[in-house]
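I have been asked to look over a protein record a colleague put together. Alongside the sequence sits a line of tokens, each denoting a local backbone shape. Please read both lines and tell me whether the tokens look consistent with the sequence. I do not need a full report, just your reasoning and any doubts. I have pasted the whole thing underneath without changing anything.
>
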Amino acid sequence: MAEEYKEALLEKQTTFHEGCPGCKVEQMKQLRRGYPYLELSLVWIVVLSTSLPISSLYPFLYYMIEDFGVAKTEKDIGFFAGFIACSFMFGRALTSISWGIVADRYGRKPIILLGTISIAVFNALFGLSSNFWMAIGTRFLLGTFNCLLGTMKAYASEIFRDEYQATAMSAVSTAWGIGLIIGPALGGFLAQPADKYPNVFSKESLFGRFPYALPCFTISAFALVVTVICCFIPETLHNHKQDNTSHDDSYEILEAAARESTTSNGKKGKASQGSLLKNWPLMSSIIVYCVLCLHDTAYSEIFALWANSPRKYGGLSYSTNDVGTVLAISGLGLFCFQVFVYPLAERLLGPVLVTRYAGALMIPIQMSYPFIANLSGLSQSLMLNCASILINVLSVSAITGLLILQNKAVDQRQRGAANGIAMTAMSLFKTVGPAGAGILFSLSERRLNAAFLPGSHMVFFVLNVIVLVGVALTFKPFLTTARK
């Protein structure tokens, strides 16, 4: 009986229905041959547009808080910076699952268009913020309507042929990682343009009165271009109004077949066909993913605050341009590694070992940061860029390995829901990250003469503790992989 259900379902899946956008995409996938350059480019630019604004504020956040006048002393700047940074993730944590449900009901394309339009609007408004609360409000709204990453993961799995599914997931994670590096680089180079480029921007111009608007407007303009492009993308959601059995009913049939087969064999079915919350390979990889994402977000903010802070507090006294240069170099190194080295490393070691080794290697590198602050000139610049490249490469590699594990832990029908759970959990952790990092950094500047872990030593020690927890969780019996 179970086999009959499965055969009926397979026959239904191979039937193309006139007027169904999902069926048109399936037909296109069957007819098209060759490498999917167009689809790959589309996924890249959409994911890039959603990741750019997330961390683009870090290079200038220190100076923005200073201009708002809410911090009584320099030591308080990190405290207030954390709340602006975490407001984005808090908004996203509240709505990630809801946007996933809406995308499953009304289609991927409307949610993609809504996401890119919201980036264009709210990121531009953030650049025009004139006070602390306006900055928090616009970042919160930007996060609330940031519905693209989970939707694009589902879209990528539907628009690519089966043999290119790995390429699709790799494109999502790589574009995301590159955006988190390029965004701060843009923020560093384009913030305070009237001071840096007085021949182009006067003090009385819009960008002179709003010194942090230019990087935000640039990202918003890119999001508008992506919006126009997305108007022409195909919808991938099936809509068989003439069928007696809907897409959701088909899923229920498959589940029923799996349960019936399980009963007849006297064995448990695959974990991916059961409840996602009871799927331990999925949930364990999500937990480790959240821990490393917490570190990634906290590191991004702390690095920018530390680089911008005065040398008397253990920082580097870097300008936004200096921070932008370091992050641009790191972005180039990350791109080269992810394209040319990571696929080979993943094939040789597997995602679990890549995550474990990458996390372990981050610990000694982060320990070196307080000592880099004691250097000067070329030696400091060289050491800082090498350390920054390595930390970003290792961090993204560890997270990419966990994304692969998550997708392998469930079948394709459950990847949308699984990504929604991962996004919500990750956003909650990333909400804590910036706020905690800002408070921790502010506290460290009050402990410059402490006997144990003085100044920035304490900050990077806490970052290493988070990484150590993540690495420890990659061992069995906690982290398990799904059986093929």
Observations:
- The chain is about 75% helix and 0% strand.
- Residues 328 and 468 are 27 Å apart (CA to CA).
- The chain has a mean pLDDT of 82.
